[in-house]
Specification:
Keywords: 2Fe-2S, Iron, Iron-sulfur, Metal-binding. The protein contains no helices and five strands. Helices cover about 0% and strands about 30% of the residues. The protein is mainly beta and about 60 residues long. The protein has one domain. The strands form two sheets. A three-stranded antiparallel sheet has the order 1-2-5, with no helix packed on it. The protein has a two-stranded antiparallel ribbon with strand order 3-4. A hairpin with a 5-residue loop joins strand 1 and strand 2.
């Protein structure tokens, strides 16, 4: 049976995070993995308290 693949889109937001839309597997620095099925915001500024995810700290 052929598995249908879902498109994943990466959107660069001006003065904001990288938005990844679609299914994503995240591999953390400790080797643990996490599955995301919807939109996920990744920090680009380094101010987040929730690495690698954006927590809106760039707005402060």
């Amino acid at each position: 049976m052929k598995k249908e693949t879902e498109n994943t889109k990466v959107e660069v937001l001006e003065n904001g995070p990288l938005m990844v839309h679609g299914s994503t597997t995240i591999v953390h620095t400790d080797g643990s993995t996490e599955e995301k099925q919807r939109a996920t915001a990744f920090c680009r500024c380094g101010k987040t308290g929730n690495i690698p995810f954006c927590d809106g700290s760039h707005n402060s």
